[in-house]
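[audit] Reproducing an earlier prediction to check determinism. Same input, same settings, fresh worker. If the tokens differ from the archived copy the diff job will pick it up downstream; this log only records the rerun itself.
[audit] input (109 residues):
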Amino acid sequence: MYETLLNVGLSEKEAEIYLLLLKAPDQTAQSLANQTGIKRPNVYRILDILSDLDLITANNTTVKTFRCNNPENLQKLVHNRQLELKQTARSLAVAMPDFRSQHALSTNK
């Protein structure tokens, strides 16, 4: 599962924390820091990233804990990245004549 998360585009630390929350939800940032050896401020940064990707949710009770959202959101993430990549490919196709022109000018000097 770890390799799959890396292929989806998560960093090693993001994948590590995601898997910990998947296996044992409702953990605090401190408990995640203790288990991973990642400094707590960095754990919070990673949790923010995972939350922005809609992969986890914070439980704002007395003690803030985190848990994974539905794993189907990983497929949504991949789908959105595919759409972004297609848009990037279209933009590149439009700009390619300019790149070729610049390249030709620089190699003919």
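[audit] rerun output stored. Observation attached for the diff report: The chain has a mean pLDDT of 94.
[audit] end
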